[in-house]
Structure formats: C-alpha cells, structure tokens
Amino acid sequence: MAPLPNAELVQNSLQLYRYLLRCCKQLPEENIRQHYKHAIRQSFKVHADEDDPERIRQIIKRAIEDADWIMNKVSASDCLIFSLNRFKTKKTLQSEL
Known about the structure:
The structure is a single chain. This protein is an all-alpha fold. The chain has one domain (7-96). Helices cover 76% and strands 0% of the residues. The chain contains three helices and no strands. The longest helix has 44 residues, at 53-96. It is globular and about 35 Å long. It starts with 12 loop residues before the first helix and ends with a helix.
C-alpha cells in the first residue's frame, strides 16, 4: 500500500493536510486512522507559525516520506496477516484429511 498518487503535486500546507488525511482513509482499522489523524492535526498546530519557505518544503517532503513509510508498514503487516491466515487454513484443511 503506497501513498496516494500525485504526492509530488503537494506544494503547500493545505494540500499536504488534505493529502495526509486521504492517506489515513486507506488505513485498515479505525483506531489506527484516528491515531494518525490526531497526529496530523497536532503536527499542523505545532508548525502553524512556520514562515520560512525552505523549512516548509522540508516539512512537506518529510511528511510525505513518513506517510509512505507508514503505508508500506501497514501493507507489509496486512500481507503477513493474510499469509498467516492462509497458512492456518491450509493446516486445518490438511488435518481434516
């Protein structure tokens, strides 16, 4: 699960905020979605007074990289859970034979 397409088009804080919230919608569990939505809101409050354009570009770049990492982490854990469930099902079917 990669971040949403067009991450490279994010140029300002409002676009980043919307992008990150859309990424949250792809997360599999409600408690995980709520956790990251809260973290996004808090981060925006902390950086609300940032006015250096270079620093804002760094923050945007880092936020997108972090979103990519989180989405890949979630994707990897989903694959692991799917594989474990598949293995358990296969073992159950074999034991029934």
